[in-house]
Amino acid sequence: MIELRQSILNGRRIDYSSETRFHVQVGKGKSAYRTLAIFTGNLAGAVIHFNGINLGPDFKKRLLMEGGKPSPVLARIHAP
Fold first, then answer.
1. How far apart are CA 13 and CA 4, in angstroms?
2. What are the φ/ψ torsions at residue 73 (nearest 5 degrees)?
3. What's the number of domains the chain is made of?
4. Per-residue model confidence as pLDDT tens digits over 43-67
5. Most buried residue, 10, 44, 59, 66, by most Cβ within 10 Å?
C-alpha cells in the first residue's frame, strides 16, 4: 500500500509517497553528477546521507527527488 507523506526541508514543504525515490549525487567541477545512493520513501535517510558527505575542493553534491515539482532538486552544495 502506498503511503503519502509530508516533510519540511529548508523551509519548503515536500510531499512524497512511500515509493518516491531520492537520489544523493556528487560531481566534480563542471562534470555531470553521479548517483551515490538511492533511498525509496525515506527522505530522512537521504538527508542524513547527504549531510554526511564531506566535499573536497571543486566538488559538489545534491539531493534530488524523482518526479518532483516544480524543481526536483531539494538541496545543493558546491565546495569552493
1. 13
2. -85, 115
3. 1
4. 999 999 999 999 999 999 999 999 8
5. 59
